[in-house]
Specification:
Elements (H helix, E strand, L loop, with lengths): L2 H11 L4 H17 L3 H17 L2 E2 L2 H7 L5 H14 L1 E2 L8 E7 L18 H8 L2 E7 L5 H10 L3 H4 L26 H6 L4 E6 L15 E5 L11 E4 L2 E4 L5 H15 L6 E6 L19 H4 L14 H7 L6 H9 L3 H27 L6 E7 L4 E2 L5 E2 L11 H4 E7 L8 E3 L3 E2 L3 H8 L15 H4 L10 E6 L2 E6 L2 E6 L7 E4 L17 H18 L19 H8 L19
Parallel strand pairs: 3-9, 3-10, 4-14, 4-15, 5-6, 5-9
Antiparallel strand pairs: 1-2, 4-13, 6-7, 7-8, 10-13, 11-12, 16-17, 17-18, 18-19
Helix pairs in contact: 1-2, 1-5, 2-3, 3-4, 10-14, 12-13
Bound molecules: calcium ion.
């Protein structure tokens, strides 16, 4: 039986027609395993019918019945070749794919198998990477949750949209009851919804009150806090219902809801589904010590070679030397070099990977895999021992924007359009994702003053006329230009010293070269580019380097009051909602 071999030529013929190529592969494997007989051939005929229907190809009924009359895969191949020549797609490739946008919480690229991690098991994400393109140089714009989520949804920098630190849940009661921090901007879900998409968010929100606006999302399920304190027993806002989630890890719950959504999908409109898992997170108290999940036991005795054991960071040490240290810093110290915490972190990454596997399986089982653009990424990374730190970039002030916390996974799959097994080292900023997703959906929409650009042509395997060789980061008093070779950190006057790392010589960023005369010219050029970039893009109202304010909250109010006066404070006004119908 040589079904695989004999189907290879027709599979090549179908390379531009992904569903048929997949059909041929599946049929070849099926015949190889089970042989050809009338019953098996009839089954493959039925599969062909479904494949063609999904591609909206019109074919006479007799075609499917005829397949069972053929005795060998070779004859069936010849017949399928004729079918290909006579088939007429109602539409060529649908220009409006479904979109599954998976955003996980605090996952650095370096913790994934697909990015070379030897300790943490992420087989589903690793496989997804093989089925599309994996970006090695995608970077978060900021090291905290709310600002990066605002950037993913608006294509704007933190100093443009105004969300410049995590939105503190303790401030929630001071915000208007339906406050949404980015209501006045064009957003990705708004743009897709007003152009015929069915839009949904399942998972973490963290952009104001826990209720994404109706004008952006048709369907939404979130938990009622911004950040995760515990993966268990969360209060859930499920469309119009509220309830306590009992007996289930929240990552599993969000997978359940997303799978349900995909099973019930009615094909009336293309869907845009954002699944924003609140794991792996890797912060105290959520990830301190042993974890309650099914994977923890597998990691209890793992020797984590990829988790550095370092002397604890000086900033944390300093915070511990006061007479009554804050519990927060004590927890950071407890996480440091702690085997149980490492096993916890690894297990939460595998929990997220389970979820990704289930989402991809649901796409496949519901006939949606071929026409769904899948984007997998993280809001930002997280330290897991590097530089003596666990957790976020703001545990030092000004923030430390090392690659560990800023280099995020980015994997994009779209069968038949994006070649599989691709790796790209294009410099991608989070502000590039919204323009790219809109472009892949066939929409040419301008985003006012966004630094983002579409890399859709690159995804499709076409040459880009040009692309910047740097990304920019924007976390309050720290602004960074990260080129292929250097990472230059500039600090707001009076808040700290500048830093320079040569990533090619010093990938762990342990040797700060700022002030070294050999690098004076490098610094001068990078500084000029950084200044030009923010001069061109930042919004004076939210530019902390020009006396601007922030949305919602910041950990550093006192710093800005000392610079700009006692009247300086965060704001949470209700702004008019964006609408492209309002001139
Ligand atoms: Ca985060």
């Amino acid at each position: 039986m040589t079904g695989l071999h004999e189907l290879a030529p027709i599979k090549r013929l179908f390379t531009q027609w992904a569903a048929m190529a997949r059909y041929c592969e599946n049929a070849g494997q099926f015949w190889y395993r089970h042989g050809t007989n009338a019953r098996n051939n009839a089954r493959m005929g039925e599969d062909l019918r479904r494949t063609l229907q999904a591609e909206e190809v019109i074919m006479k009924e007799s075609v499917f019945a005829t397949i069972s009359d053929f005795a060998t895969p070779k004859k069936i191949c010849s017949y399928l070749s004729l079918l290909l020549l006579s088939a007429v797609p109602v539409e060529a490739r649908d220009t409006q794919p479904n979109i599954l946008f998976i955003v996980v919480d605090n996952q650095p690229a370096s913790i994934l198998g697909a990015y070379g991690n030897p300790d943490v098991k992420t087989p589903n994400i690793d496989r997804l990477a093989l089925e599309g393109v994996r970006f090695t140089r995608a970077f978060a714009v900021h090291g905290m949750c709310s600002p990066t989520r605002a950037t993913l949804l608006t294509g704007l920098l933190p100093s443009q949209h105004g969300v410049q630190d995590w939105l503190d849940d303790e401030e929630m009661e001071n915000w208007p009851s339906d406050w949404n921090a980015i209501r006045e901007y064009r957003t990705l879900p708004y743009t897709l919804k007003t152009r015929g998409y069915q839009t949904s968010l399942i998972g973490k929100w963290h952009l104001g009150q826990p209720r994404p606006p109706d004008e952006w999302f048709d369907y939404w399920v979130t938990f009622n806090l911004g950040h995760t304190v515990d993966f268990w027993d969360n209060e859930i806002n499920d469309n119009s219902k509220k309830y306590k989630l009992e007996g289930k890890h929240s990552v599993d719950f969000f997978s359940d809801k997303a799978v349900e959504y995909l099973q019930a999908y009615d094909h009336q409109k293309p869907f845009f589904l954002m699944v924003t898992y609140n794991g792996p997170y890797m912060n105290p108290p959520t990830n301190l010590g042993a974890a309650k999940n099914r994977h923890y036991v597998d990691y209890e005795d793992t020797e984590f070679t990829s988790f550095p054991r370092n002397r604890i960071n000086e900033t944390i040490l300093e915070a511990l030397t006061v007479s009554d240290p804050e519990e927060w810093y004590l927890n950071l110290a407890r996480m440091h070099n702690d085997q149980k915490t490492m096993a916890n972190a690894a297990s939460q990454n595998t929990m997220v990977d389970d979820g990704v596997g289930r989402l991809l399986e649901a796409l496949r089982d519901n006939g949606l895999a071929e026409n769904t653009l899948v984007i997998y990424t993280s809001d930002q990374g997280n330290f897991f021992g590097q530089h003596g730190l666990w957790g976020h970039t703001d545990y030092s002030f000004p923030a430390s924007l090392y690659d560990t916390a800023m280099n995020i996974p980015l994997i994009v799959r779209y069968p038949g359009v994006i070649e599989k097994e691709q790796v790209s080292d294009l410099m991608i900023g989070q502000y590039d994702l919204m323009p790219t997703i809109l472009d892949m959906a066939g929409f040419d929409v301008g985003i006012a003053n966004s630094p983002g650009r579409s890399f859709a042509e690159h995804l499709k395997g076409n040459e880009l006329a040009s692309w910047r060789d740097a990304v920019y980061m924007d976390q309050e008093a720290t602004r960074v230009i990260r080129t292929h070779q250097y990472s230059y950190w500039k600090r707001l006057k009076g808040t700290g010293k500048h830093e320079l790392y040569d990533i090619q010589k010093d990938p762990k960023q342990e040797d700060d070269l700022y002030g070294n005369p050999d690098y004076a010219e490098v610094v001068s050029k990078l500084d000029e580019r950084l200044t030009q970039f923010f001069d061109a893009h930042s919004n004076a109202e939210y530019d902390l380097w020009r006396g601007g304010s922030v949305k919602g909250s910041t950990e550093s109010t006192q710093v800005y009051q000392s610079l700009y006066g006692e009247q300086w404070k965060p704001e949470s006004e209700i702004r008019p909602a964006f609408s492209e119908n309002i001139p």
